[in-house]
């Protein structure tokens, strides 16, 4: 006889989702800052994690705007499925909360732990989708700080549902997918990726504006920083760009994802050379 877990997984995969896993809500891998499912639903029993592969053509397209559009569609598919499945679970009397593949995020100007102002505003999701995916054996976190799955490497988007339904969890697994090839570190235009860590501030600034530098702490470095901004302003219209970003959520960078060679399903169609993608950060 089919269990509720089988029925939920079948519904999800039948909706066009590529991967699905279930984690025990009380045993999620702690992230930093901690993102427990119980903070969002104290009675949570399970976290359903879903992934949809990006179109690889969009990932390798010459202009990041083409990828952005694809990203919106993967998010839409994920969010629609999360909504559908949550309603299904609630019809069975299990409170369920979809966690979107996209915004909103918490925005922190000050460090909640110390109250001190951050050098750069930081954002954090209500649930860490990567950690939830690792918790249900979907993949591992690579040197690029992204979830790598055996099937698609880093080329998927994630979404989740927190639910009271006591579904059967999938075990966490060991993969060793990251080849430590350092391509992501070399490709990162902002220097956010280091061999031993990921620095969120330079990534955020490059991803948002295409600027390779953080606002300097030292007053003597400000003239150089202002010159850099003026160079950008000569070739870019930030007002019009801002409008487009508001409507279609344009990003400035996916290099750490593009260059990663992991992902069995893509081995025959991955291009041999991956030139830098055009974005606000490239000239
Ligand atoms: C906010 C966010 C961003 C922000 C901040 C990134 C960050 N790591 O915090 C920015 C805009 C910079 C960003 C960039 C990117 N992102 Co993003 N992002 C998110 C989002 C919404 C939340 C991330 C999060 O909170 N993670 C949980 C934290 C605990 O884990 P972490 O990311 O490892 O930790 C960092 C933060 O906590 C921060 N940090 C450290 N101390 C503190 C203290 C405080 C108070 C705060 C607030 C933050 C903070 O630094 C940590 C790393 O040191 C998730 C979706 C989600 N809900 O999970 C997508 C998500 C992680 N992003 C994704 C992607 C693809 C990207 C990009 C490639 C950009 C793009 N164009 O899409 C880059 C990749 C950068 C990288 N190599 O990690 C995908 C990853 C898919 C995958 N295969 O893994 C996700 C899962 C979206 C999705 N629906 O699929 N992202
Ligand atoms: S999104 Fe771009 S800037 Fe951020 S870590 Fe990846 S390659 Fe570096
Ligand atoms: S590009 Fe290489 S080092 Fe970076 S995550 Fe992928 S396999 Fe690991």
What do these coordinates show?
The protein has 283 residues and is of the alpha+beta class. The protein has nine helices and ten strands. It binds cobalamin and iron/sulfur cluster (2 copies). One iron/sulfur cluster is lined by residues 142-144, 178-184, 259-262.
Q: What would you say about this model in short?
A:
The chain is of the alpha+beta class. Helix content is 33%, strand content 17%.
As laid out across the biggest beta sheet, the strand order is 1-2-8-3
Number of strands: 10
Strand content: 15-25%
Distance between the amino and carboxyl termini: 60 Å
Number of separate structural domains = 1
- Approximately how much helix is present in the residues? 25-40%
Number of helices: 9
Structural class assignment: alpha+beta
Unreliable segments (pLDDT under 50, ≥5 consecutive)?
A: none
How confident is the prediction overall: mean pLDDT?
A: 95
Q: Secondary-structure element order, as H and E?
A: HEEHHEEEHEEEHEEHHHH
Radius of gyration: 20 Å
**Net shape:** globular
The hetero compounds bound to this protein are: cobalamin, iron/sulfur cluster
Describe the main β-sheet briefly: 4 strands, antiparallel
